[in-house]
Amino acid sequence: MDAYFAGMLLGLAMITPIGPQNIFLINQGFTFGVPRVFVAVVAAGVCDTVLISLGGAGTSAVLNRVPGIKSFLLAAGVVFLTYLAVKSFRSRPEDFDQSTPPEMRWRRVVAQCTSVTVFNPHAVLDVVGILGVAIAAQAPDHRPIFAAGTVSASWLWFTLLALGASTLRRWLTPQRRVWIDRGSGTLMLVFAALFLGELLRS
């Protein structure tokens, strides 16, 4: 069990810092609440499970040999995060009319969550690489247990994040939601700018 908890601690250390994926989940919790927010939780959890599994299988070494892969992911990340930011800035109080439940299109939620994850080069390259190395460093019989710990950390964090946002949802007026969306859009633009700067330097 030591390997499991070591993997969980490493997973939590890597997943808890604020990033596009966490911002997306918080917004889903604010918008839809429980139980519909769990569509986003499952989508994010599956994405991280796949990335961690790929890291454990040594995919990071393959990705590092593919020319232009990081530049492509950075460029895609800039475009997609800018799109999400513009969408957030265009929100209005009437978009959050609490008298009628917001419509959820689960395919769109899954697609957006997947894009936020896949078009984040740090998630694809850094997380896959770091966790891949950490998994490979374990004794062979401990590797599956360690990997299970890192996967559990992602699912636990995403669930807590969604539940926390859903709990706060009842105190959010439409006007507050607009300001939260603007704050979210600003953070998305910050990450887009960081990705763009990294792209120009590469």
Automatic annotation (TrEMBL):
Record membrane topology: Multi-pass membrane protein
Superkingdom: Bacteria
GO cellular component: plasma membrane
GO MF term list: amino acid transmembrane transporter activity
Keywords: Cell membrane, Membrane, Transmembrane, Transmembrane helix
Ranges annotated as spanning the membrane: 6-25, 37-57, 69-89, 109-139, 145-166, 178-197
Compartment(s): Cell membrane
Database matches in Pfam families: LysE
Protein name: Putative amino-acid transporter YisU
Lineage: Bacteria, Bacillati, Actinomycetota, Actinomycetes, Kitasatosporales
